[in-house]
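Whether sequence alone determines local backbone shape is best considered at the level of individual chains. The sequence in question and its structure tokens are set out directly beneath this paragraph.

===
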Amino acid sequence: MEQQTLIYLVVGATFALYVGIAVWAKAATTGEFYAAGRGIHPITNGMATAADWMSAASFISMAGLIAFVGYDNSTFLMGWTGGYVLLACLLAPYLRKFGKYTVPEFIGDRFYSQGARIIAVICLIVASVTYVIGQMTGVGVTFARFLQVDAATGLYIGAAIVFFYAVLGGMKGITYTQVAQYVVLICAYTVPAVFISLNLTGNVLPPLGLFSNTVQEGVPLLVRLDQVVTDLGFNSYTGHHTNTLNMVLFTMSLMIGTAGLPHVIIRFFTVPKVADARWSAGWALVFIALLYLTAPAVGAMARLNIMDTVQPGPVGVEGGSLTYEERPDWFRTWEQTGLIQFDDKNGDGRIQFYNDRNETFAAQAAEWGWEGNELTINQDILVLANPEIAQLPNWVVALVAAGGLAAALSTAAGLLLAIASAISHDLIKSIINPNISDKGELLAARISMTFAIVVATYLGLNPPGFAAQTVALAFGIAAASIFPALMMGIFSKRINSLGASAGMLSGLIFTVVYIFLYKGWMFLPGTNQFPDTAEYWVFGISPLSIGAVGAIVNFAVAYGVSSVTQEPPVEIQELVESVRVPRGAGGAVDH
């Protein structure tokens, strides 16, 4: 069957499945809309959590980040995985034991303050909106290639699908849809990886293939890759080339940002008991590991395939590089999306793909008549294009298309639910109109979800960076604002409402200002900003890493303010004790 027809059939079938699940699992009450009626089985919830957490950044961008940088970008793997363990061990069971629907609700009740709840809502919305931009960007990239529409049209289609199953089903519908999306995305990620690993190394398991010898040259794959990239002036793939302090802070920012992500946290409110929250976390880690153990191999093998495709012969020798007319079909297809661009700077009709910022190599390249790098490849396309680069069967390409969309849509739905819940439950129900009926609150939740989808689609058209970079900014914001408040709320009886509020505001403002100084603000395209390069960063700390420093600011301000103001009421201190002590872990405590 023709590839494009097959893609339409596979993607259409998955969309029909998601819509069908939404109709079957339609939320009828606020309890079902916010927390799926607290009736989700731990294994089911673990799978849904994995899909919710493994976003477009994990599926689409992470392997591309690793592929084009190498070892230094393994921080994404370490930070995201470590953060999930942090969430599972330190936050999830205790928050479930508290027995509420949303993160701002926990903060408002724990810190006995509507002001703290409002600040938490603001932090949640800023982090979630920033995060959802990356997901909508991923939807646009995937649709642009596989459905042969422009990125804007792709965004609109994706938004319409999310609108239907998220607004209709709420958390109940999203949960079962995410289970289906997990199955689709994990198959779409691992099946091509198995094929490519077999082709390059003869090893059926990609994580092992990464450390195996190549079939053609008989040398370790990573040794071969290091040779290929350094021959063209790029940094070695396995070497460490960045600021160590920045690398550590970035990993920490991703870790504590992961543990502070509201759309992941609320997944643990859907299970019947506290013990089930712990089991959910364990199962989710198993499901997540299937993709994260495969990602380094996907990145390395894809980079090697691309380099060998563009530079099939010896470097610098006439005929060594590919001519533009000889470019393969996958190159032509992706070129139509604008995500691959060729600029024949020296007019020889050949593709010179090298690091022209390496002065030593650039000088050598100039002697060959090369006048600068001529090929630009968007990092977000790597996983999606990988099966085509490796010339895998059409059905594998179609499966990857469905997987990329499943990854982006699953996380987008979770984020949008977190935003809608904060608006309808924490603002409208708790502050603006406490007497609103259950039916009225459910309607408000659906209207809030619709509004969030419209805003996310608009911002997805003009994202501040490629998908994973945008997501990294969201993690920094969550790390600096939400995570410290949750940690102190659970493990410190001394932190009061003034301290928590001041800490959240300080962490959020510090982090957002630092990010926007270097990244600019998406609403103001012409805004002046500092150059986003290492020599201009304060102490070499990247805007993507500043969330860890923001968290320290949050903790310091909260403890400082709390120490010079009145202690929390006795009943609040007893509440903290009852949540933290594992007594009665088999059942939930609902307040």
